[in-house]
Design a protein that fits this description.
Number of helices of chain A: 11
Shape of chain B: elongated
Radius of gyration of chain B: 19 Å
Order of helices and strands of chain B: HEEHHHHHHHHHH
Strand order of the largest sheet of chain B: 1-2
Number of strands of chain B: 2
Largest sheet of chain B: 2 strands, antiparallel
Number of helices of chain B: 11
CATH architecture of the largest domain in chain A: 3-Layer(aba) Sandwich
CATH superfamily of the largest domain in chain A: P-loop containing nucleotide triphosphate hydrolases
Strand content of chain B: under 5%
Largest sheet of chain A: 6 strands, mixed
Largest interface: A-B, 30 and 23 residues
Radius of gyration of chain A: 23 Å
Distance between the termini of chain B: 28 Å
Number of domains of chain A: 2
Distance between the termini of chain A: 37 Å
CATH class of the largest domain in chain A: Alpha Beta
CATH topology of the largest domain in chain A: Rossmann fold
Helix content of chain B: over 70%
Structural class of chain A: alpha/beta
Oligomer: heterodimer
Shape of chain A: elongated
Amino acid sequence: MVAVAPDLDLASRPSVSAEDVIVARGLEKTYTDVRAVRGVDFTIHRGECFAFLGPNGAGKSSTIRMLSCLSPLSGGELTVLGHNADIGERRIKERLGIVSQDDNVDPDLSLMENLLVYARYFSMPAEEARQHADELLTFMQLEGRSKAAVRELSGGMRRRLVIARALMHHPDILVLDEPTTGLDPQARLLVWGAVQQLKAQGVTIVLTTHYMDEAERLADRLVVMDHGRILQEDAPRPLIERTVGREAVEIWHRGGDDAPFIAAAGDALLLSDRHGDTLVLYAGEPGRIGQAFARQGIAPERMLVRPTNLEDVFLTLTGRDLRE
Amino acid sequence: MNRTLRLLRSAGAVWWRDFVAWRKFWRSSILLNFGEPLTNLLALGVGLGAYVAVMQGVSFLQFIAPGLLAVTAMNAVTFDAGFETYDKLNSSGVYAAMLTSPLTVPEIVLGEYLWEATRAILYGAVFFVVILAFGLVHSWWSLLLPVPLILFGVLFTAPALYVAAVARTHEQLFYYFSLVITPMFMFSGVFFPVAHLPWIVQDIIYILPLYHGVLLTRAMVLGQMTPSIVWQFVWLILYAAVLAYLPVRALARRLTT
């Protein structure tokens, strides 16, 4: 069964006039001995999906915690929905749906109770809360389990419940911190479908992820972060083409010399990269490296030609070294 | 929205969360909080009481019953606030989830006070019914028992929340229980009057909040309300007021880094 989130009507949200819903300038976060975020600027527009990419420790989560008002700023300025994050915490949180990395659903409560209790934190009228909770359980395909104990849920169901909970108060912005980490492919599809549907209804999505296919599929614009700074910012496709061209040629050859291949590729070559036994050659235009090889009679034994993707960008920008 | 109204609404939402969670386990919870004081009452009051004929003009059973009511409330509050808060912080993420909503740390703490005050009254009431059945209640002043129990809900919850916020392990919670709560239970005049102890020991006991709580509950249950009992009220209110803000900063440090 392919999981597709069913329709949900989230209309009648109050509109905010400003089109830039989140504006950060010189944002900094310092913990006692670590400078996690070192002055980042970004602007997130209403209705778009904006992704933060980066290796562990890049500063993504610190950034997202600051714009969720879960962590005070160490420096810089941050405006969310027209409110200064330093003083407008309550106003901002009233309009934000936050899905944190850890599935912090309430283990002592049933699914329905989780949603209704959370609605109370927002002073939502009980009747409205119950009706919306029903809709959201259906939206996240958890209907029929409303009375189940949270302890009985699988990891995927818990994540879906956290997302449903974050939508209880009709937020303008949905903040998703690694929403599909640890989910099976079916559950990932369901979450992606839900995100796309919410976006279509005008909800601004802020996302962090380690999955490049997820970012490529969902994000309208993204930033790649590392060591607390933003390295690149763009829409996925332009960013890919600008950084690693349009085509990647992977050549496996054990311990050999890369120089002949690189020389043969000539001016078709944009960039080369090696990891393990694999040499990756990036070309701005598809087919050019293949043509160059053919002209010079170079035929690697094992070669894969494929379109470039965000993973190439990510590894090119942040390197291949393990971070932890 | 009016600030006070908003504060109460938010605290009420936290109270409601605890109530909904408690509702599932209320039977075992009452049984657990009830077994120990009942055992003390029967084993000590009836058993030991056979050898201790009269204490301050009443039977030993009669003497210890009101104090055990205060102890029941103290324990119901302390253990719940300690363990539950530790778990809400360290494993379940209940507080982290609350902070993704407009709730603030002071509102959460106030909500916990309201809930623990509710528990103090509830568990105190159950114990009250027992001593009533034993014929150990002698005064309508007993109707005022909720007043000290509500104060217990603040003054014993505050340090328990603080300890839960700074404890790194479950074991560290037990330090508080076994080094603070249990000695207080033994020396706060529940089982014997403190008037004959050395003056320095009396001075130390006079600092313990439970001591004043025990004197109050005993005076109410036995109908021995004298004007000087006001001082016990003053002490409990003072303790509640001084301690109330203690856990706010410790919790905020844990939750908003």
